């Protein structure tokens, strides 16, 4: 066991990148305390979570996630 924490649909989650454990689809959550939803692609309800700071090196704030800097 790695101690990996998984998140289930319906849980209140904070900002971060959530990856569907079934199909690998990624979701970016930028607000705190919002409901995690079932994956629209495969209806899976289990997600892996990664810290939001690992998404892109040039994205440092939740606002940047919504409006990525131009290349
Ligand atoms: Zn999925």
Q: Care to describe what's here?
A:
With 71 residues, this protein is mainly beta. The protein has one domain. It is 7% helix and 30% strand. The protein is built from one helix and six strands; from the N terminus they run E-E-E-E-E-E-H. A hairpin with a 5-residue loop joins strand 3 and strand 4. The termini are far apart. The site of zinc ion has 8 residues, from loops.
User: How many strand units?
Assistant: 6
The largest sheet is:
4 strands, antiparallel
Query: How large is the radius of gyration?
Result: 13 Å
What strand line-up does the widest sheet have? 1-6-3-4
How many domains make up the 3D coordinates?
1
Average of the residue pLDDT scores: 82
Work out the strand percent. 25-35%
Number of helical elements: 1
- List the ions, cofactors and other small molecules found in this model: zinc ion
Low-confidence runs (pLDDT<50, min 5 residues)? Answer: none
Overall, the morphology is globular
Instruction: Name the helix and strand elements from N-terminus to C-terminus, one letter apiece.
Output: EEEEEEH
Distance between the termini: 40 Å
Structural class label = mainly beta
């Amino acid at each position: 066991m790695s101690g990996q924490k998984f998140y289930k649909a319906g849980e209140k989650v904070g900002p971060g990148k959530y990856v569907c454990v079934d199909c690998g689809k990624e979701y970016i959550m930028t607000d705190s305390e919002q409901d995690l939803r079932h994956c629209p692609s495969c209806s899976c309800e289990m997600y892996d979570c990664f810290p939001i700071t690992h998404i892109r090196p040039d994205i440092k704030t939740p606002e940047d996630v919504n409006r990525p800097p131009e290349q």
